[in-house]
Amino acid sequence: MPEITFILPAGKEQTCTAREGLSLMEVALQNAVPGIIAECNGSAACATCHIIVDDALASTLDPISEHENDMLDFTAAPRAPGSRLSCQIKVDGRLDGAAILIPAEM
Ligand code: FES
């Protein structure tokens, strides 16, 4: 199973073993990763599951949908080039070893 490391705003890291097929949001909630709220439970309607991925990982992920792109304008933390909604990213082998940044709210 892929191992994914969440990097919290204070720099602390939390590494989780993730079951393929779950969303990154579900993995974060299962592991009580701080900063992932997921008010809409994964329907891409709340933007409280905001994460930031680096360029290398972003280039391997499925493209961002128009709806996800629109919702990223409503994140509590400022949007960054690697911003994504974690509920819209399914875990698979591409995420093994990935570092996922949880942005600090402003
Ligand atoms: Fe609401 Fe992802 S959980 S947008």
Distance between the termini: 34 Å
How much helix, percentage-wise, in residues? 10-25%
Strand content: 15-25%
Low-confidence stretches: none
Indicate the multimeric state: single chain
Specify the CATH class. Answer: Alpha Beta
Structure description:
The chain is an alpha+beta fold and 106 residues long. The chain has a single domain (3-101), classed as Beta-grasp domain (Ubiquitin-like (UB roll), Roll). 16% of the residues lie in helices and 19% in strands. The protein has helices at residues 24-30, 55-58, 66-71, and strands at 3-7, 13-17, 50-52, 83-85, 98-101. The radius of gyration is 12 Å and the shape is globular. It binds FE2/S2 (inorganic) cluster (FES). Residues 25, 38-40, 42, 44-49, 71, 85, 87 line the site of FE2/S2 (inorganic) cluster.
Summarize the helices and strands and which ones pair or pack.
Elements: E1 3-7, E2 13-17, H1 24-30, E3 50-52, H2 55-58, H3 66-71, E4 83-85, E5 98-101
Parallel strand pairs: 1-5
Antiparallel strand pairs: 1-2, 3-4
Bound molecules: FE2/S2 (inorganic) cluster.
List keywords for this structure.
3 helices; 106 residues; Ubiquitin-like (UB roll); 19% strand; alpha+beta; two-stranded antiparallel sheet; binds FE2/S2 (inorganic) cluster; 3-stranded mixed sheet; 16% helix
